[in-house]
Amino acid sequence: MIKRLRELEPIELTTFTNELKEDILARVTDKIPHLESSLAVAELTVALHYLLKTPEDILIWDVGHQAYVHKALTDRLDDLATQRTKDGISGFLKRDESPYDFFGAGHASTSISALAGVCIADLATGRNRKRVAVIGDGSMTGGQSFEALNHLATLKTDALIVLNDNDGSIDPTVGALHQNNRYMDYFHSLGWEYSFLENGNDITAVIAYLQSSLARGGKRVVHIRTKKPNLSKKKSYEPGTTFQWWAAEQIREILHYRSDLRIFSPAMFASSGFGPLRDDFPKQFMDTGINEPHTVTTAAAMAAAGGRAWVHIYSTFLQRAIDQIIHDVALQNLPVVFLVDRAGLVGADGPTHHGVFDLGFLMDVPNATIWNPRNGDELQTMIFNASELQMKLDGPLFIRYPKDKTVCDSPEEFDSYKWMINQGSNSLILSTGAVSSRVQPGVFDHLHLGQIKPLPEDLAHILKDYSNVLILEESIGSGGLFGAIAGLVADEDFEVKLVKRKISDKFTSHGRRQELLKELGLIP
Amino acid sequence: MIKRLRELEPIELTTFTNELKEDILARVTDKIPHLESSLAVAELTVALHYLLKTPEDILIWDVGHQAYVHKALTDRLDDLATQRTKDGISGFLKRDESPYDFFGAGHASTSISALAGVCIADLATGRNRKRVAVIGDGSMTGGQSFEALNHLATLKTDALIVLNDNDGSIDPTVGALHQNNRYMDYFHSLGWEYSFLENGNDITAVIAYLQSSLARGGKRVVHIRTKKPNLSKKKSYEPGTTFQWWAAEQIREILHYRSDLRIFSPAMFASSGFGPLRDDFPKQFMDTGINEPHTVTTAAAMAAAGGRAWVHIYSTFLQRAIDQIIHDVALQNLPVVFLVDRAGLVGADGPTHHGVFDLGFLMDVPNATIWNPRNGDELQTMIFNASELQMKLDGPLFIRYPKDKTVCDSPEEFDSYKWMINQGSNSLILSTGAVSSRVQPGVFDHLHLGQIKPLPEDLAHILKDYSNVLILEESIGSGGLFGAIAGLVADEDFEVKLVKRKISDKFTSHGRRQELLKELGLIP
Q: In terms of CB atoms within 10 Å, which of A41, A127, B59, B456 comes out highest?
């Protein structure tokens, strides 16, 4: 389709773009999230591929939410129907999917750094080509964008950035820069030429604008405003069916009497079931922008000043704040409560978003407490207890829950989040988190650990009764719960055969969560 | 001393400050690194404590390199002589050392986030007090500073930032913002009032300036220039004595024939023995600023464009780029070589800087290769091989070495970085990295693994011959080499008793590296 596009006269581009949008809509109906973000940049996408000689010229997208038109243009129109399903194409950019996807992305704010990397590679070899990055106003709130602008501006090379401004990523964009619309001063201060185009959905204007910017060279930012069509139905969770719903309900109760509690989120409230809650408690929910490092340090300092700070964060984005968790929270013994959402496999979003690393990382952080609820009411109990215990904590508390359905089926009482089924077997299944609820009652004993750090004091005593212990956790890596149990066995010096059941040491593709869990052998 | 300071007339402050500087110099001689940074802000420090009612008013320092005068003023003048030694005071800010150290720091760019956290805590309780953060121009290159400025500006509260500009952190400050001195536009674009004072070492001027800024309220940045005295002797490494020296020598050889190789460092070349090398190969060494996330993504994209990208990074700062290592490098199978310096205990810098987490984290990253050399010549062989193998790699390669002395004593040949001493014992010591060279020859067999990921294919075969295997690694956490071996034993289902010898699950204080290693039981 690219070839056909490049043979068109400029005057034909509007029709081409409109037809392309219709073709996309016909294929994806309402199945794809972020479709509006992509349709908003249809004209921009067509203009870029019309002017650039991709894939030799470099076109980098930030996150990839806006790249569905790009995918359609680059030989993946029909594949859009299979997007985000098992064996279908990815919802994000992906290098091994197409030579036109120069740099994969799923997390925000990496595109300008990637642009810098290409510039440096080309400077080293003397290669001359066009290099463009497209970044949204939401992604501009991430500090990595600033780092990249500040550094790239010092390189002796041409580079073009398109700032795609539609007032939001998933949530509306926060921060003074965007609120005051002071982008011109901002880019100038960092050494970039800047120009602004109001109507970024007028393809003739976009073409003219980009053409002149590309021709003039240097370091340029073209700021264009685009408009998202309104296709989406508001997401809602059926009461009592998801971990997200149970979390929101419990927090609602707490906020009624804890007016000093603040919940920070790096731009993810709306997609995690907290939207209505934020509307009701606007002072207590603070969207900081797409900036995990800042969010975590802010929470730490609020705690240092005696405040009640909670952080809502996706497991996959917590990877960006590991240092702040160690250096600002845990090392200083500060009581910050983390709601780690999307902990575990996320399903359709795939490998950029699977929350499979945080459990292993967090187990290694001194002073941390880690809770993995089995189901909705265990999650609620934990959230309630977190609120009660917070000021006595000596470090961070992480409550990790997956993007999954769940029900309420805990026994009425359970002791420190341990939950045991005794069948009189000499083999034990030891599990943690949501996968615990999928362990089939059978001939083996089963112990669910809601708290995996610190380990229960009587755990060695319990394990000593067994010949075999199978450890089941929704996590990757050499440590995690398995490593901790192996360490306990070594330190306490008793004999037991351990069996390891966790995510193997490779990236897991996209697909339905249950499908993936089954494939990985974590659920029957 | 604070009390005495606050009873002085303004006219007496110059003398007070000069005497204080002399008192400090008399105590620390040349033992303390970063002393110049602290003396440069002596006037600023005195002025701030004179005007603020610390510790009720909040004073936050970034990194802490500039905080020695602050320490002297706040009851720790005599302790400065013991700074950075075991049981002495810390080289950085530390909450449990003094109520005047409101927020600890050792890593850069956290202070404005911390300021935001205090503002939010005070907003929640209605508390009214002065809140000031002091940040250097080097720390301003870190994206977290931008994130914090952008977010904090939207809060309805007063906050004052002092930008302490002395053209450098450890290395001279890079980036367009500083080079072009466009701070006014920058801060304005983010919603901050801005003013500039050229002579930040004139205490009368500093007092007047700060006083008026504090009185006016709002969100204000006071940019002051300060001058470092020149006390330092240039650091140099005695040839052949440190891992850093061996690394630099080997890289020098490689750069002679690989003109397309680029080595990125987030602002740490000078302190890691690469200073002279950078002078000789200025095009190939790229200081990106204090911005680990950007550095790693840039390297990934350079690799995606076919370039040879290496990243030099301290283990403790690598914690800031875990996400980029996963999402941009490993997931995309990109061949980036990482020189992980200061891997392991760093000694005098203490818990903010110990490189004890990265080994555990990196073991969990799919597609990663991890090498831990035993000594200088193993490090050289690895660096040479990394350069030869790079373009065939299917993901990142990490070469980890500590801040330590080392010699050259490898046997002439060794096979894939395995190094075995066989004593005919049924017990094996299995170790990796520099601690391997401190294992005493004795009655046990000893296997050093230079490569711990992937594990050698024949490892299970080797281990099956032993009844006991002691695993020795300079790393914290439930995984790492120990977890990997425990996993191997579980997966291959053979019987062996494992003994774990690694850093226990708490933060290790500062002190001499050898002293700490001994205390932790990692060396005899």
A: A41
